Amino acid sequence: MSSAMVRAVRKRLVNGCRVLAGHGQGDLIWGHLSVRMPGEPDKLFIKPAGLGLEEIDDEHLIVADLDGNRLTGRWPMHAEVFIHTEIFRRRADVQAVVHTHPSHAVAFSALGVPLQPVGHEGALFIDGLPVFSQTSDLIVNAELGRALASTLGVERAALMRNHGIVTVGQSIGEAVMTALLLEKACRVQLLAMSAGGGLVLPAAADARAKRDRLYRPATFETAFDYCERLVAARASTGCSCGGHGP
Fold this sequence. Notes:
By secondary structure, this protein is an alpha+beta fold. 44% of the residues lie in helices and 15% in strands. It contains 8 helices and 8 strands; from the N terminus they run H-E-E-E-E-H-E-H-H-E-H-E-E-H-H-H.
């Protein structure tokens, strides 16, 4: 692959980290985003440990292999690199992986109830939102990474009970936007449930039609481009927030 393509992917990864942070998915120095290296699918670029999502720049990125070994980069590797490596190993269709700890999704994961299409965002997950419940601890080895990848299966996202979320995509934009939409879906359902009474939901066919109309690959990229523009606008004014909540 050309050096220009590699630089573009690295820049997209940096912006993806900042978009996640700007939409409330930063958690001090925890949470991470990765993408396969162009032309080398058995390697990945990944955010390092020790820095917040909003701090990430090109110089911080690590190159790792699918065994979780750091190949290049001076910053430490996240202990949970196995979330990324084992999903990449299992899912040839996945190009990017997000793992974060957004507050509403973590709270929702503890309820033991299914996510419903209360709003548009919930419709994205109508055909499956698996829940990983083997442990709430960190995914610190390949065995746990494989278990999480198995729970995720062919879906686009999974809740990690009492822990966080994992989302995947065929691009950085798709994985990041899926993370933002999942957090909003959890927040909207929690809000509706807190009002008391039962939920009035659309028919499944209606929700699926809405999902297919709203959430196409091109739409994910357009939405992510918008979020990147917010990152650039805030950087130009000296704001480190990176964006705003959906």
